[in-house]
Amino acid sequence: MVTELARPEAAATARGPAASARRRRRSAAVAYLLLAPNLLLFSVFMIVPLVWVVVLSLQSYSGFGSAEWVGTENYTTMAQDPVFWRAALNTAVFAAVTVPLSLALGLGTALLLNRHVPGRGFFRGLYYLPFVISGVVIALVGKWIFDEQLGVVNRVIRALGGSGVGWQSEGVPALTSLIVMIVWARLGFVMVVYLAGLQGVPGEYYEAARVDGATPWQQFRYVTWPLLRPTTFFLVVLTVIESFQVFDVVYVMTRGGPGNATQVLVTYAYATGFDSRRQGYAAAIGVVVYLVVLTFTVLWWRVQRQRGAEAAP
Questions:
Q1: Boundaries of domain holding 264
Q2: Quick one: pLDDT band at residue 27, thresholds 50, 70, 90?
């Protein structure tokens, strides 16, 4: 009798792992079926072009006729190309200036608009507006502001008795005008992200700090800033990536000039591929930009993963 009662239980136990495995397979099949359209689009528009760019970077191709396989010759040429290194230096300087400026101004604006001030919602929208405007529009506004003859800035300088600045004919002023417009365009996004971080700080921390006699600066230094470090790290990585990918504002405002004073890696790749018709060499520059961006992306992912593991119980 005991044996007969035990048999169904044993059969159920034996069926348990097999049934569980079948359920997992069915769930995985449904998940892949639902993901299939996105995976297809991702492969067609991301993976295939990326592979093609890598292959093209190993060829000499003008866009017409057949390509010639040259191996790593494009990368060897790049290492000896002074214009490439000038563009790389300009990109690095551009990132080194715009990233801290964007973060500092964005944080300051977020701290101001996190308070209960009149018209707070209006000013939040006003600061965020440039971020949703096309980069070409931002560049056209920049050309109007910094035009040497008719620009607003030079008009003000001349009205004050000055002679104006060569925003298009001198290297440093041209790069400065680009930095100003990019920081202005990026300010709203940085502000919104910092606002989200500030609103996640518990108010009890500030109350405890005030009870202990902390000044507003001490509250920011010992409460606000430490709790905003993950947000700051995220913004640093994101704005560095954006700085290495900047194209439209530079192309419309200066086209890399005067000379190559404002040439950055992406505009140099574009000029090389479509003006000089050296598409294999342009693809090699694109691969270098991709590797730089990938490095910062992997860095951010690893840090986030490490923090998630440390926060897990």
A1: 81-311
A2: confident
User: 300 vs 268, which has greater pLDDT?
Assistant: 268
pLDDT in tens, 202-221: 888 889 988 888 898 999 99
Q: Phi and psi for 168 in degrees, rounded to 5?
A: -110, -15
Determine which of 123-132, 207-216, 271-280 has the lowest per-residue pLDDT on average: 123-132
Cα-flanking dihedrals φ and ψ of residue 69, to 5°?
-75, 120
60: three-class secondary structure by DSSP? strand
CATH number for the domain harbouring residue 167: 1.10.3720.10
Looking at the fold, whether 171 and 269 belong to one and the same domain comes out as yes
Contact 87, 268 (CB under 8 A): yes
175 shares its domain with 304? yes
User: What is the rounded distance in angstroms from the CA atom of residue 289 to the CA atom of residue 154?
Assistant: 35
Residue type, 245: Q
Q: Report the number of distinct structural domains present in the chain.
A: 2
Query: Do 31 and 86 share a structural domain?
Result: no
CA distance 253 to 140: 7
